[in-house]
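Researcher: Please translate sequence to C-alpha cells.
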Amino acid sequence: MDPKPEDRNKELMRLMVTHQRRIFSYLYTLVPDRHDASDLLQETCVVICEKFHEFREGTDFAAWACQIAYWQVRRARQKYARSKVLFDQGLVDALAETAAEMSAEVDVRHEALARCLQKLHPRDREMILLRYEPGVGVEEAAARAGRSMDAAYKALSRIRKLLMDCVTHHLLEEGTA
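Model: Translation complete:
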C-alpha cells in the first residue's frame, strides 16, 4: 500500500531538514563561491521536491540528493564559464567523488565540534560564534564581545586550540580519527 501524499510530503520535509547542511557542504566543494552554492542548493531542493516520487524508501537520501546536486552543478557550469575561476570537469568529478567519500567524516566532525562548543566557557563560546557569523570579522567580534583587538586575537587562538584538541579527543574516543 502506497503511503498517503501528506505522509510522503512530511517524510520529504524531514529528510530535507536533516540533510540540507550536508547537501550544501557537498555543493560548496564543487563551486568556488558560497553564494553560488547557496543558489544551487535552492535549485537542487526544487528538483528534489519534483523528483521525490522517484526516491526509493530505505536507500540513502543524502547520496541521492547529492547526485541531483551534482547534476545541477553540471547544468550550471555554463554560468560559471564567465567566472574568473573555472574548474575542469575532470576536477569537478574528482571533487564530487571525494566529497561523497568524506561526507560521513564531516558529519562526525561537525557533531564533535558541536559538543565541544557546548563545553566552552560561555564567554569563549560567544566570542567564537560571533567571529564566525557571516560577514563578521575579528574587529567587529571584538567590539561586540567588549574585548580589545589584541585580546580578541589571543582569545580566538586559544579557543581554536581548545576546540581542535577537544574534537581530536572525541574522534579518538569514537575511533573515527
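Researcher: Any highlights?
Model: The longest helix spans residues 89-119.
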